[in-house]
Amino acid sequence: MRLDKKHIEQHNESLTAKHKKKLASFLEDNEGANSYIQKIKDFQIAIPSWALGTGGTRFGRFNGGGEPSSLEEKMEDIGLLNQLNQSSGAISLHIPWDIPEDIEKIMGLAKSLNLKFDAMNSNTFQDQADQQYSYKFGSLQHVDKNVRDQAIAHNIEVIRHGKALGSKSLTVWLADGSSFPGQLNFREAFENTLASLKEIYAALPADWKMFVEYKSNEPNFYSTTVADWGQSLLYATKLGPKAYTLVDLGHHLPNANIEQIVSLLLMEGKLGGFHFNDSKYGDDDLTTGAIKPYQLFLIFSELVDGMDHAKMDHAAGLAWMIDASHNIKDPLEDLLQSVEAIMMAYAQALLVDRTALKAAQQSNDVGLAQEILQQAYRTDVRPLIAEARLQNGGALDPIKLFRTAKVRETLIKERGLESKATGL
User: Is the pTM of this model over 0.85?
Assistant: First the structure.
């Protein structure tokens, strides 16, 4: 489904007067903020191909209807999201769930939808019907070299698909670990994983990056072979300059100071990108900003500070992606909400008075430092984000238009109530 351009224009016309009034008031109160509009227009967040369908838990899955059952339909859904918010112009593929069978056709569709292909994602946490060896006891860490070789070959195949699509990066997330003490030798598991990653790293094209993702626990609960940012950084450092740590906001132990982790990884030049979501208990994969919006802002505050210090481009310097599972919400609405929350946190971080904050820090004025940060966080930046969308040709109120245009109802008519997204 694609929205008629006139539909978006009519929607915007009905809201323009109120928007312009709010924007003028915002710019009057926030001098210089007008210069941030272009940064917001440039900032793009990739949508993963597995996020377009209704997720589930081990207790069950409740189909929402109208789900995309092919890669082409997933791309069309992301194209629709991008029509609405103009901040979702990239898709991140998961292999083997979304293997492009006809590259020429897929590339043509991507061009028509104004989409680019972001990081490629491998899967060695599930057994596939045609594979010879099981990943029940690990993949790149496995004690059996045959299993490790199979997992290595899969990752190299994912790189091959990515090259054909114009992608420039590979994300490696491993479920490898152990569920019981004594199940594996920690040192050997690390060494096996590193040796396997080195073979995959050697297959990377010269202009590619490898992102080593970490997770504190699950599906293994006693140990995880890439459990935290320190272990990921250790792998990335040993692999070489094309390897980086990838941060998923839900992959930490409770109360981890993610903003400090981000700052240090940026300092070391080893932060590769983000998977955005939110959580209350663990890797809940909830809508970004739904539970801890202030934490999201603090993370972006460190990102803006660190990237500016390193003279990095905000839009292109790191890989930005949502990684969420929508168990009871409409996936497209959920993604629109997540992108909006990310853009808000980014815009608020841009508003932080860095000069004043630095002075407060140097004089140990704790109260003033807090006020400076919270002043930016408490600022309603929605008029600024809406203006950036408007200038890019998007909708002033994406969710309102999504609902008034009856997008989900139309998708159900086109695809049926029982359609199911691949991989879920």
Answer: yes
